[in-house]
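Sequence only, no structure available. Ideas?
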Amino acid sequence: MQKLFSGLALLLIFLAWSCGSNKPMDATKTPNYFRLLTSGSDFDSLSGEPLSAKHSRVGTVKVVWKIDEKGIYFIQSKYYNYHSDFCNAQFNSWETLETFNAANYHTNILQKYCLGNLNFYSDLNIYTLELTASTEYNVDQIEEFFKQVQTSMTFEHDLRLCISTDFLIEKESEFDVPKISTSELYGQLKFQIIRSGKVYGRLVVLDSLTKNSDVSPTDIIIVHGSPLEIPLCRAIVSDAFQTPLSHIQILSRSRGTPSCAVLNKSELDELMALKDQYIELNISNDDFSLRKLEESEWRKYAVLEKPAPRLLIYSFDKEFLSGKDLDLKSKKLVGNKAAAFGELAQLGRKNKSSFTTPEDAFAIPFYYFNDHLTRFGIINDVIKLNNIQDPYSEREKVDSLLKSIRKAIKQNDVRAELHRYVDERLNKSPFRSFRFRSSSNAEDIDGFSGAGLYTSKTYVKGDSVKTIDRAIKAVWASVFNDQAYYERWSKGIDLTTVQMGILVHRSFPDEEVNGVVISSNIYRPSFIGITVNLQKGDEDVVSPTNGNTTEQVILMDGGQFLNGKEKVGCDYISMSNLNNYQPLLNKEQYMNLYYAITEIKEHLYFSNFGDHNKGYNNYALDIEFKFDKNGKLYIKQVRPA
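Reply:
I predicted one. Tokens follow.
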């Protein structure tokens, strides 16, 4: 048996050697690796899609430097998913993945290899050597690794070391090789895939989305920037990159709408030339294509399917629920946002976690919203609105009813007992400013996020404009916003079953950093990690203003190193210009955030909150957080992503 094993091992070594070299021995076969890249075609023959989809139009080749040799192994992407697969096969190592990773991603006496990815950005015509977030080679070794790659590329090329991890950012000034920061790279890219798919529709260019009257759900739209309102449509093309939790990103996921961002002027001009015409738009994993349709061909795709009816669940109770009484079971009374907030608050108190939730929280139940609609006869217009079968053929009637309902809600007084309770409760608080937040049964539900559809308002003690009554009625009236109505109609939601509660807690006039998290690695679904989008102060993360860029980073557990210390690796995609393109959080804060999100994720996963079908690693939550001026972490909201 031992002889048989030895014979097989020799055969495998021979095969690996014979399929290597710089060119395949048989030109009809694909090589396992090259030792030299003599042209861009060599790179293309080995290249595959990056393991992480954080950028588009990028080809990648894994590279290995065997430290006791000169030169690089450029690895065939079709054959090897991981560096360890190649090293075990080529060098007969037979190490476990855990042992291989522990020894070879930082400089130490057990290290045999330097490992990285050689990426080619076609829009920029540059190559970059990129390291993982957990890689910590010393500066001399990184420079030598870079030079080995550089000299092994014998054709004319532009190669840079990509400064994209927390470790590399810390050491950046020490490197004496060509470099490019992650912000420079991000700022020069020209295409972003958001959701792939092929669609057919009329191409409509919209400079403003304050009115949706000219947009049909069968249209393909081009928008400017990252607008807060996106009408129902078949596809979305933006002229600006979208952050992970922009409305375009969220709506593309929840609606299943293909979308992308195109920054290249010639490609935008090509799109604009087909304005108001019927086209086929095909957004692939890494590009897009256009085809003009004849009217006869378009008719096959012009049908708008009527959604199946959906009734929502609710219950009525006059009792106000304080933060300590709220949990997931409360959603029938106060809505999904308030119920999930209560679950967070209980988790923070129970486990003495490193995070907390905003203070002085309580919920106004559905009862008072329904009472307001019924007591003033507003419910009659709601029923009329609900009975409209095709709102796109009766837009004037829909608009008139929506305006009438919003006006009636705002011009009638809330019940005295409701105002009295809220006033007395908030007067006992040491805080002066409070946020009144929508908490509906028509958001954060299966197949319908409702993100950004409803209004939140601020109440300030002693302010003659920001009053309790106005805050409450503004939240209630937002149920009948144009965008909210059409979005719910597209999912068949019965309007008479929609209820609105209100979550109240103190506001944050002094936040140091605000941000949102997806509790999975959205750019590499098979890999554990969380995706974070954050910004300095109270500047908007979801829809940045004045061309500001936000910080985008993937946090990954760095595991145990030989010195016994745990760390969280940071893989940066972009940096905030408001913080001079430097990280907004320090290492301790990132560690705190990572483990707080992990704690929440584990708790809610086993509480059957949200979608479990993809397993724990891909279990995605949308979490809002803040760090205050004292560095304290607040978790403000959690919803299924």
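Residues 587-605 form the longest helix (19 residues).
Hope that gets you unstuck.
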